[in-house]
Design goal:
The structure is a single chain. The chain has 226 residues and is an alpha/beta fold. The longest helix is centred in the N-terminal third of the chain and has 16 residues, at 19-34. It has helices at residues 8-12, 19-34, 46-50, 87-100, 111-114, 140-152, 165-170, 201-211, and strands spanning 37-38, 58-62, 118-122, 127-128, 159-163, 180-184. Helix 7 (165-170) links the parallel strand 5 and strand 6 (180-184). Strands 3-2-5-6 form a four-stranded parallel beta sheet. A two-stranded antiparallel ribbon has the order 1-4.
C-alpha cells in the first residue's frame, strides 16, 4: 500500500484498492523491471507527499513527466537541482518574472512552491524513457481525476492553473463555483506566444488567495545548486 504521510492517505486509501489501480501497479512493476522509467519509483507520488490535501492552495496541472534522463522527480514541470530547465519550464519562470517582478532563479526545482501549497500534479505520473505519453490510458488519468475531484469537493477555495488543452479538459472536473479556474495556452515554445506569455496567472492566483483569506504564494525560488 502506498503511504504518502499526510491526509491524502485516508482520502485515497480506497483508490489504491481499486481494480484499475491494481492493474496499473502490475503494469508499472513490469515496466520498471525492463525499461528506464521516470521518475524513480520512490518519487512517483512526490507531489502528493509534499503538498497535503488541506494545504493545497494552487493546482498546476501537467500532462506526463519529462522523458529525458534525470529530469523527472515527481513534480509537474519541475526538475531536480543541477538539471537544466527544459523549455516549458523556462517559459513558466519567464512569466513569473514578468508577472511578479521576480528575478529568475539559477535552477528549475519547484519544490519550494510545493511546500507552500502548490500541487504540481501531472495527469499521468510515469513515463518510459524517450516515449512521451506511453503510459497514458493505463489508469493514471482515473487516479488523478480522483485527486482533482477531491480538491473540487473542498469548501476552502483552490486556484486551478490549466495550461493547454490537456489540462483544460481536466478542468471539467472543477464544478464548484467557489474555486478559481484560470486557463491559458501551454508554456511549450510551440504555443507560449499564443496566450501563455502575459496571462498573469501567478499574480491573479495570489490576489484570489488574499481575497479568500489565505496566505499568497511566494513565487521566488531560493538559490540552489547549479
Amino acid at each position: 500500500m502506498v503511504k504518502l504521510g499526510n491526509d491524502w492517505d485516508e482520502l485515497l486509501e480506497n483508490e489504491f484498492r481499486q481494480e484499475y489501480y491494481l492493474r496499473l501497479r502490475a503494469f508499472l512493476k513490469q515496466e520498471y523491471s525492463r525499461s528506464d522509467i521516470y521518475p524513480p519509483a520512490q518519487e512517483i507520488f512526490a507531489a502528493l507527499k509534499l503538498t497535503a490535501y488541506q494545504a493545497v492552495k494552487v493546482v498546476i496541472l501537467g500532462q506526463d513527466p519529462y522523458h529525458g534522463p534525470g529530469q523527472a522527480h515527481g513534480l509537474a514541470f519541475s526538475v531536480p537541482h543541477g538539471v537544466p530547465a527544459p523549455p516549458s519550464l523556462q517559459n513558466i519562470l519567464r512569466e513569473v518574472q514578468t508577472d511578479c517582478d521576480i528575478a529568475p532563479p539559477n535552477h528549475g526545482c519547484l519544490d519550494a512552491w510545493a511546500r507552500q501549497g502548490v500541487l504540481l500534479l501531472n495527469a499521468v505520473l510515469t513515463v518510459r524513457a524517450d516515449f512521451p505519453t506511453v503510459h497514458a490510458k493505463r489508469g493514471w488519468e482515473q487516479f488523478t481525476d480522483r485527486v482533482v475531484e477531491l480538491l473540487n469537493a473542498r469548501s476552502t477555495p483552490v486556484v486551478f492553473l490549466l495550461w493547454g488543452n490537456y489540462a483544460k479538459a481536466k478542468g471539467q472536473l472543477v464544478t464548484q463555483s467557489g474555486h478559481l479556474v484560470l486557463t491559458a495556452a501551454h508554456p511549450s515554445p510551440l504555443s507560449a506566444h499564443r496566450g501563455f506569455f502575459g496571462c498573469r496567472h501567478f499574480s491573479q492566483a495570489n490576489a484570489f488567495l488574499l481575497k479568500t483569506g489565505r496566505q499568497p504564494v511566494d513565487w521566488r525560488l531560493p538559490s540552489g545548486e547549479l
